[in-house]
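Narrative of accomplishments. A recurring question from our advisory board has been how the design workflow behaves on a single, concrete structure rather than in aggregate. To address it, we present the structure tokens for one chain from the evaluation set, followed by the sequence designed for it. No filtering or post-editing was applied between the two.
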């Protein structure tokens, strides 16, 4: 979050804490943070996606201009709303923006700018050129008006996927990302921070020929094991007046065989904070139902059943944009595993290839990714504690003669 860094995009999988970061910033620096939750990505039905796909052409540049201007007007409206400047004190370049920043939220302002600017693109090149230069004129005027660091704002943009609408949304998001990079480069008072899921970010990568300009501004939202353990320990300590020490003692107090329990939880949840909290909560419920004073290893193993079901559903929601009807494929799995033999993966893919539901609902993408490349062979750890396999509560999908589960190497 350092202002000296040129990072605009925070990218992570679902459940890695992106929205939690926005809440933290809103609570810690409310006087210098603007939060935007755009709903416009599913509304611009009048735009022709084919015209916008080339990022070097006028239609895409027009879209980028509209995003930059809408963001600048958002900051200008915030200055006026907080009394940093009066309308009568605005220079002419900003007075002309009054119709855009007064009584309009971000989505309505952006829609209006897109409609009017694209109309000029169709009718008059001279008027269009004058219009797309307005963002730089506004930025210069606001830079001259700026009265110090207290006038600077973080613009937090989150929950893009809530109004997602396929190909058109990808183009709009690409334009927003370019607008964020350019705005950060030529203004000192506005710093956009865009929070994105990995699969949404990858969608932009697939269509943007200028994507390398964006990659240098990306921060990956990753968690270390130490931070995840501390997060759980702080949650466990919260009800107590006298707190146990962090970084190990709290975990060992609540969990039987602390080192194994810690490794088991973090690796099974793939270092995702939301999953870690969910899994630990389910384990606590399991321990309470069995009247255990500490969370035992059996409680962790038994909690995997409910956790497995919730994760498979969550995966279906997370990747539905990239892989339509992926829920149908995930319904074929009985549970979550971490290690598989080559024979097990081969057997699984062969049976999915001939499945009638997969053919009906997932044909567009499944057969393009049905041959996974072999990167390395992971030997099974014979010294590891034997664990049971969590199964979903689903009907049998294959006949008993197909013992395909026996081919898998589970932890």
């Amino acid at each position: 979050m350092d202002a000296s860094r040129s990072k605009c995009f925070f990218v992570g999988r679902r459940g890695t804490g992106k929205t939690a970061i926005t809440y933290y910033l809103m609570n810690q620096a409310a006087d210098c943070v603007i939060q935007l939750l755009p709903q416009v990505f599913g509304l611009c039905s009048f735009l022709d996606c084919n015209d916008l796909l080339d990022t070097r052409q006028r239609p895409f540049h027009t879209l980028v201009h509209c995003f930059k201007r809408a963001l600048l007007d958002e900051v200008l409206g915030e200055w006026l709303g907080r009394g940093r400047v009066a309308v009568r004190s605005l220079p002419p370049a900003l007075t002309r923006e009054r119709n855009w920043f007064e009584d309009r939220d971000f989505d309505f302002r952006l829609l209006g700018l897109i409609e009017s600017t694209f109309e000029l693109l169709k009718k008059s090149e001279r008027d269009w050129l004058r219009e797309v230069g307005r963002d730089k004129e506004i930025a210069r005027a606001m830079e001259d008006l700026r009265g110090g660091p207290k006038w600077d704002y973080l613009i937090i943009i989150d929950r893009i996927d809530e109004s997602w609408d396929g190909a058109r949304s990808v183009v709009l998001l690409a334009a927003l990302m370019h607008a964020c990079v350019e705005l950060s480069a030529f203004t000192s008072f506005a710093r956009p921070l865009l929070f994105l899921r990995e699969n949404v970010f990858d969608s932009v990568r697939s269509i943007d020929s200028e994507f390398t300009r964006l990659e240098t501004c990306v921060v990956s939202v990753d968690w270390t094991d130490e931070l995840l353990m501390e997060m759980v320990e702080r949650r466990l300590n919260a009800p107590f007046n006298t707190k146990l020490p962090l970084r190990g003692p709290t975990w060992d107090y609540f969990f039987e065989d602390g080192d194994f329990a810690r490794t088991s939880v973090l690796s099974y949840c793939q270092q995702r904070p939301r999953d870690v909290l969910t899994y630990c909560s389910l384990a606590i419920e399991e321990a309470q139902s069995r009247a255990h004073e500490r969370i035992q290893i059996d409680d962790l193993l038994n909690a995997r059943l409910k956790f497995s079901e919730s994760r498979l559903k969550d995966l279906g929601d997370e990747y539905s944009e990239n892989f339509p009807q992926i829920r149908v494929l995930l319904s074929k799995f009985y549970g979550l595993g971490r290690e598989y033999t080559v024979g097990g993966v081969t057997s699984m893919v062969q049976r999915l290839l001939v499945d009638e539901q997969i053919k009906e609902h997932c044909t567009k993408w499944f057969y393009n990714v049905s041959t996974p490349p072999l990167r390395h062979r992971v030997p099974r750890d014979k010294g590891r504690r034997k664990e049971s396999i969590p199964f979903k509560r689903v009907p049998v999908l294959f006949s008993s003669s197909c013992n395909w589960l026996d081919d898998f190497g589970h932890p």
